[in-house]
Structure formats: C-alpha cells, structure tokens
C-alpha cells in the first residue's frame, strides 16, 4: 500500500500543497504540511503538488505489508 509522506525537516510551510490540494494536505500545529488522507493517490492535484513543492518535501512511498 502506498502513502503520502511529508518530510517535516524539509517542509518550510509555504502553503503551496494546501493551496493546490486541500483534499490531501493541511497545516499542522507547527504551521507545516501534514497529510489529511491517503485516498485517491492517482489525483492530478496530488501529482501537481508533489512537483510544485519548492523543497521537494512530499513523496509517495510504498509500504511493505
């Protein structure tokens, strides 16, 4: 199963992800990006968001289950 991962050390809280894809992203209490849901990972907005992140903090990783 795949999941969205936000590298909290790389995230600068610019808000591009939340602005592009509110379905998958929100701000956490520290003002950084966090994942809302791992549903609909084929979304065009999600692909755009991953490309638009200025610090490349967002990725989709495969889990071994």
How would you sum up this structure, described in words?
Strand 2 and strand 3 (33-35) form a beta hairpin. The chain has a single domain (2-62), classed as Alpha-Beta Plaits, CATH 3.30.70. It is built from two helices and four strands; from the N terminus they run βαββαβ. The longest helix is centred in the last third of the chain and has 9 residues, at 44-52. With 65 residues, it is an alpha+beta fold. It is 22% helix and 25% strand. It has a two-stranded antiparallel sheet. Strands 2-3 form a two-stranded antiparallel sheet.
Kindly report the spatial arrangement of strands forming the biggest sheet: 1-4
Rough outline: globular
| Unreliable spans | none
Largest sheet: 2 strands, antiparallel
Structural class: alpha+beta
The number of helices is 2
Assembly classification: single chain
Return the average pLDDT rounded to an integer. 96
CATH topology: Alpha-Beta Plaits
CATH secondary-structure class: Alpha Beta
